Amino acid sequence: MKNFFNKTTEDVLHSFGTTKEGLKDTEVDLYREKYGENVLSEKKKKSTIQVFFEQFKDLLVIILIIAGIVSIATGNVESTIVIFAVIILNAILGTVQHVKAEQSLNSLKALSAPNAKVLRNGVKTEVPSKDIVPGDILVLEAGDLVVADGRIIENYSLQVNESSLTGESESVTKTSDVIAKDEIALGDQKNMVFSSSLVTYGRALVIVTATGMDTELGKIATLMEQTQEKKTPLQISLDDFSKKLAIVILVICAIVFGLSVYRNTPILDSLMFAVALAVAAIPEALSSIVTIVLAIGTQKMAKEHAIIKSLKAVEGLGSVSIICSDKTGTLTQNKMTTKQIYVDGKLIASEKLDLTNEAEQYLLNSAVLCNDSTSIDGQEIGDPTEVALVNLAHIYNLKEDAVRNEFERLKEIPFDSDRKLMSTVHQLDGKNIMFTKGAFDVLLNRVTSIKTSNGLRPITEDDKQKIIDTNMELSQNGLRVLAFAYKELPEIRDLTLEDESEYTFLGLVSMIDPPRVESAEAVRDCITAGIKPIMITGDHKITASAIAKQIGILQDGDMAVTGLELDKMSEEELMRKLDHISVYARVSPEHKIRIVSAWQNKGKIVAMTGDGVNDAPALKQADIGIAMGITGTEVSKDAASMILTDDNFATIVKAITNGRNVYANIKNSIKFLLSGNTSGILAVLYASIMALPVPFMPVHLLFINLLTDSLPAIAIGVENPTKDLLKEKPRDSKESILTKDFILDIAIEGLIIAVFTIVAFHIGLEAGPAVASTMAFSTLCLGRLFHGFNCRGKASIFKLGLGSNKYSIYAFLTGAILLNLVLFVPPLQKLFEVATLSWTQVGLIYLLAFLPTVIIQGIKVFKEAFVKDSQEEDKKAAI
Ligand code: ATP
């Protein structure tokens, strides 16, 4: 492997046959052919066959196999065939579901894959990182993820965190100088950058020297472990529940078996009882339904612009009670347009600058020079604040390329949101000029003189007061104000932060960034949903408060606090005031961590947005870290658990609604499955205690649990959110899904279905055990299919609307058709051990299966009327 650190930049460029302008498209194609895509090969995935066989590791399957063997022993070959067919079908379904879930995760991963900025044909463009080839010229800026190895050819204070490679957590300062050595450690290769590092500061141009598996990262992780999706808390607690349930079931089975044997029931029949009970009780479909519903939920959210990076976040979203949101771009449109400009003691419209006035000319030059963005042929690249300034220059026919070529940038201190300033050095009229732009309040304290049409003079208190008043006037209208200043340097040398002082004031440029149209409504929805929206911004307090008022975040009695004021607050004071603070202005990313932690200490689940490189720790600290898909840095996307592809606050609220809905749907599906199982268990237990014949064959229960029950369960899982969902308070994240009320509901509903199943069984017994078993099975199956409608939501079906979830109707009809096929098609009759029924018996089954739903719906209607009445009475009492 060649070393590049000891070569000059020209040599490296030469060895890839390229220039600082970047590769041409034809060369890119050529290199791609030669070196392949810039991706790391993943460890060989489990083959589909392997996944298939893994499905047999389950306790359920073992019980089923026992059931199959017992069936052979009882001479029931058909039953054995069905059981083994079911086992295989179940394994196929499990495999398909596994593969599908993997595909859906992969597609989400692809959506959140990083991009990289490159120079190609001399033009800066953004491309997916997989398209980077050796020889490409990468443009690195603070917040970027380094996506390939490369040699630095131009360096502007670049600092990189290489902890993923070297373990060193401190950022490393880079250089473009040659290192004249033959062999040095990775950490000492200061003129190289390596894939997976994070740019924490500065800027650089880099020529890519290795991609994909040839990078240092590729070498270490020769085979990348495939990232395994971790189970969500809900999945873990359900797995745990299933295991406990299985043990309890086995114990009860043993007791039932013992009871039968004690009563001198033949051993095989006793065994059939035990097996029937086990099959009835084990919720076969439970864990796959939860995964399917979570996966469908994330797909839906991705379509609605929220990419979920971990399934855990879907659940977490349902309990969010605080949203800390950035202002710029999330609550506002991030479409900045310059408005009024204050220069030379007067406030003028941005298109009214007089370039013969030296102060105005300097201001405009600095707006273009102290600026990294471009706006060419409608394609705007860079920070919208800076793009607005470039567009301002266009009004005066000043093209950024031309100005920047004429007055080359010699040194710089890049912008960072802690310092809130940016400085660049250029030679103008033979002088070394350092231009600085930044936050008004930060810069004003550092000016000592002022530039006017009459030249330079010391700044007076009057000048300052006028500037402060102008800033106030502009900010109160919600305008963002940027201050400009400059100073002359005696010589060109590397800048330090101390250089950012003793300035000459140039002027103020205000720009408008209107709130997004949907922000106000989303804020209202939040408040109705018991979620507190909080604005956290780097912008000025007055500007922030004006916007926050417009969209309803800052209401009467609420406070706006600056980062400085926050610093002065003790922990106790902050905790006391926390509930009332709606706006944090002029904050640095570190403040965000303090705000998140404070709310977390109050037991709240906090969602926090972030876009900058320094936001990563806060995003990680928040329960739901949200990155911006369009404007966010790769670093923030890496740290977040959700990415907004439209950067929009309203999308967060939509995602929370979806999160709540997914959780509610899963809960309803679980209720449906468990109450259905309860009815089966109670019927078998009843028969066992009353010394009656076995009411169901294992095939009957398998048919219900795996086929007819799965359909309504999935239909319930895709139920649309109701309006009421946003009226509820956020769910307590610590609350277990299996609350007392929930279990009571399951028990009651299970009991009601069981009672009618037992009635059907008794009616059937008059015609013999075979008819009895068929009637019990059919009533249970159909009763559970009807029950699917009951579990769609808390409300009665009249409120929900029968047609509002067409899948639930399809699920019911498919299940009913399947049942009728089993009942009426002779070969299936034999296979599923059902007797031929008379029409009266069939009619009775439908009636007995429908009655539990009538009762359950009746209870709901009664509750709706009763609860409503009592609520109204409460209201009256309150008045
Ligand atoms: P939010 O935190 O809501 O996204 P923001 O964009 O104002 O808001 P920062 O990017 O941290 O937050 O900016 C903080 C302040 O720094 C701004 O209010 C502005 O005064 C100044 N500023 C922003 N961008 C630049 C820039 N490119 N150059 C110089 N100063 C800037």
Feature tags:
879 residues; alpha+beta; eight-stranded mixed beta sheet; 32 helices; 50% helix; disordered C terminus; binds adenosine-5'-triphosphate; membrane
What's the short story on this structure?
Helix content is 50%, strand content 17%. The chain is built from 32 helices and 26 strands. The strands form four sheets. Strands 10, 11, 14, 15, 16, 17, 18, 19 and 20 form a nine-stranded mixed beta sheet that branches. Strands 8-26-25-24-9-21-23-22 form an eight-stranded mixed beta sheet, sandwiched between helices.
What do you see in this structure?
By secondary structure, the chain is α+β, with helices and mostly antiparallel strands. Strands 10, 11, 14, 15, 16, 17, 18, 19 and 20 form a nine-stranded mixed sheet that branches. A hairpin with a 2-residue loop joins strand 15 and strand 16. Helix 27 packs antiparallel against helix 32. The longest helix has 41 residues. The radius of gyration is 34 Å and the shape is elongated. The C terminus is likely disordered. Bound molecules: adenosine-5'-triphosphate (ATP).
